[in-house]
Structure formats: C-alpha cells, structure tokens
C-alpha cells in the first residue's frame, strides 16, 4: 500500500535541502507540485530539478521535426520539499482542523489542511 502524504498536487512548495542556488542547486526555490508519486515517495515540482533529456529526432504527421535536447523536471524526494505558508511565504508544516459542515440536511465532519506556523488554511 502506498503512503499517505500531506503534500498534494497544486500545492506551492519550497525545496529545503540540497545545494544552494549560488552553487547551481535548487535549495530555496519555490514551485507548484505537478504530480505526486506515492509508490516511490517522490514529487514533480514545476521549474525545480531540471535535467537535460536527449530524445530521438523524428517527424510528426505534418512533417515538423520533433526531438533533440529538451530540459524537463525530474522528481524530487518528498522529504526534500515543504509546503509554503500562504501568509509568510516561508516553508511550514501541515496540520489539520476538523469542522462539522451541514450538507444536504446531514452533518459531516471535514478535515481542513492548515499551516502550522500561521494557522491559515491551505
């Protein structure tokens, strides 16, 4: 069974480990989560951990050339990123708050994700 994570697709996250940006690394960069891979405990973050990929040159149906050298994002381990607080724009931990909501005449308990540092909803 795959693990359950507090980081979801669409979250704004910041890289908290690795080489500093001055040395060509990604620590401190922020980006949106494009995809979460629960099987391998990894996340794909927009604009972070870019690698050059060589793809075979071919032709599409219309005759345009495809392939060559592309830069694409590679997955990062989920422990190397943290969710960004919407108020302070700094990395924070994620907590949960439960609320009872009345929907369609029935009361339901809903878990809402909250930033630990400021208490704002994520």
Automatic annotation (TrEMBL):
The keyword Ribonucleoprotein applies. Keywords: Ribonucleoprotein, Ribosomal protein, RNA-binding, rRNA-binding. Residues 23-46 form the KOW domain. GO terms for molecular function: rRNA binding; structural constituent of ribosome. Coiled coil: none annotated. The keyword Hydrolase does not apply. One of its GO terms (cellular component) is ribosome. Belongs to the universal ribosomal protein uL24 family. NCBIfam families: rplX_bact (TIGR01079). HAMAP family: Ribosomal_uL24_B. This is Large ribosomal subunit protein uL24. It comes from Crystallibacter crystallopoietes. The lineage of its organism: Bacteria, Bacillati, Actinomycetota, Actinomycetes, Micrococcales.
């Amino acid at each position: 069974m795959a693990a359950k994570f507090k980081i979801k697709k669409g979250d704004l996250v910041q890289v908290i480990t690795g080489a500093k940006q001055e040395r060509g690394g990604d620590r401190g960069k922020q980006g949106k989560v494009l995809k979460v891979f629960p099987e391998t405990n990894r996340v794909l973050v927009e604009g972070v951990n870019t690698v050059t990929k060589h793809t075979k040159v071919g032709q599409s149906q219309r005759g345009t050339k495809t392939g060559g050298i592309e830069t694409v994002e590679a997955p990062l381990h989920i422990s190397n990123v943290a969710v960004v607080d919407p108020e302070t724009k700094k990395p924070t931990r994620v907590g949960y708050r439960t609320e009872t909501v009345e929907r369609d005449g029935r009361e339901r308990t809903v878990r809402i994700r909250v930033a630990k540092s400021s208490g704002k909803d994520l």
